[in-house]
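Quick one:
INPUT:
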């Protein structure tokens, strides 16, 4: 049956919703591509026949059926590849820039290359912005945090004009947005 193997690829991917990625099924992808090539060749042959036989109407329905199967296979393959890439991108945000070996074994060579390129682009963007986007992936629970000074800094003026004296080992209750750059500089640390 046309399109059955491509649908099996998607079902296989859908069955592994528990956060794991099944191994890239290269054999099934190759079978789908071969089926698509066969459908395309058959359509090309029949289109040539209809053009030479002054438009025989009986061949058009077969051409349309094969073309619809061809498009369905294409959509299924693209969905398979896209959903795998979405999961790989989620792994980058959850696990960081290095994939565990057991996960790398489930990726094809092109997917590993895509992961490495995505990792490099994300790192370059974060360097350019001077911001670690992977640090706070969830919104904060409170606007204010408790911080402890690690070194003498002097006066710190908050957005509302309040002056806070930051001396070594002193603790303060400040807005998260105002003291994040101090945390990154190592002047204060967040007390859990």
């Amino acid at each position: 049956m046309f399109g059955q193997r491509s649908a099996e690829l998607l079902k296989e991917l859908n069955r592994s919703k528990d956060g794991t990625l099944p191994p890239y099924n290269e054999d099934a992808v190759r079978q789908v591509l071969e089926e698509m090539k066969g459908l395309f060749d058959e359509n090309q042959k029949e289109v040539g026949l209809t053009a030479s036989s002054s438009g025989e109407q009986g061949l058009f329905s077969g051409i349309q059926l094969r073309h619809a199967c061809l498009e369905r296979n294409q959509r299924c393959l693209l969905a398979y590849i896209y959903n795998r890439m979405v999961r790989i991108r989620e792994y980058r945000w959850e696990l960081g820039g290095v994939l565990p070996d057991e996960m790398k074994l489930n990726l094809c060579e092109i997917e590993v290359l895509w992961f490495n390129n995505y990792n490099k682009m994300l790192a370059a963007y974060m360097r350019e912005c001077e911001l670690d986007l992977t640090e706070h992936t969830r919104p904060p629970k409170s606007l204010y945090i408790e911080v402890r000074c690690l070194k003498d800094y002097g006066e710190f003026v908050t957005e509302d004009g309040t002056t806070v004296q930051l001396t070594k080992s002193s603790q303060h209750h400040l807005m998260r947005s105002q003291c994040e750059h101090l945390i990154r500089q190592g002047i204060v640390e967040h007390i859990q």
